[in-house]
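Exam revision sheet. Question 4 asks you to relate a sequence to its structure. Input first:
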Amino acid sequence: MSDDAATLEALVAGLDIEGTTCLLRLWNPAHRSVEYIPLSDGSWLGWRAVDDNRYCCGRHVWRQDGMPAWLPCPSVGRAQSSKKQCQDCELADVFLGLHQVHRAGARLSDGLNSYVMRPHYLYVAGFADGVEKVGTAVDFRKEDRLVEQGAVLATRVAYCSDGKMVRHLEDAVSSSLGLTQRHSVNDKARGLANPVSPANLRSEHGRVVDGVCAFVSRLHWQGVESIRENWGSEDRIELACGMCDRTLYPNDVRVGEHGLAVQGSFGLVILGTSDCYDLVVNLSTLISRRVQVGPFISSLPPKQDSLF
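Answer key, structure tokens:
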């Protein structure tokens, strides 16, 4: 494909959520504009890597209404090693230190303190490989957080007065019940390539949620209300776990040309088809990279050949 055929050169700067749809956020520094590619059924995603460098994905700031907003890096400089931000953006990001807010001695800015003192939810999320994790979400992102995480189904199990309380509760659930707080994108991708059955996923999720709800109810902590709000449609469960012959994408998304018809996404892991293959593609390593977006295609072996 010629250079002229590419439609856009941009930095892959992150993931945004609109309803239940994941949007790949692209920052075009030449025009100082943001473009979005929906990672939803029926869309096409094609790209070519521009170079081997990693660039700063920007920072979060507070809007006048107190809500967070994303801003691109002023200089679009190189990202720090193993990070997605330059040092200036990392230090200026309003969420710096967010995950330590419940630790003794944590110092918060006024904006972050206001954010942390909003109501939060504790949830249990189930993934395609059958792994269950506990997590937290601020009130106005209680839906977006689950979509962003790539959960297949989930249950909100506690409503907490603030973000400090919910993080204490998360730690208590994790340490007492052995429930993980982290499930890597790589593991999520492998799970979608080799999922448990929908019935097994529902059964295991229900069992874990029963245990967490019982544990939360026994605590009687002030500022914590035990709830049970289910999330995740049958269509979503079937998309994730109804097919067992998907293949992990064999190519490095950071190098060369790629293209596929998107069937759906679970956070930064997309399901799609290319050359008769049903594929699971992990886009997480594409974040902070510059790409050309256009009608590129993937180079894959013929269907009768093994990808392994």
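Marking note for examiners. The CA atoms of residues 102 and 167 lie 7 Å apart.
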